[in-house]
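Fill-in record for YbaB/EbfC DNA-binding family protein.
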Amino acid sequence: MEPAQWLADYRGRLERAADGARQARESLEQAGATARSPRGEVTVSVNAAGVLKGVALTPAARKLEVDALAALILTTAREAQRLAGERMADVMAGYLGDGPALTQLTRHLSPEVVR
């Protein structure tokens, strides 16, 4: 293969990889999740990394005991984090494919999320 052709092929591969990385980044930016408690008293939103973005309480939350409300917030936050992890794993599986890189990236996620 001619050096000029090899270089053109290499540049093309780099451009495709950069495009894929951009698409993965954009998808991850939107991969956060929101979960709602079973009766709707609590809504929790997290970003793709599972970092808390917001907590909303309805008037019904005021009727709960403080400990029960705290537990409900934690349970709802964990569900939002699980959903965000699932979405993140799906995005990255599309970019990386199933294999060691995806395993390394998702090793901290809960077992129900990991493929």
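KEY FINDING: The helical segments are 3-29, 66-96, 100-106.
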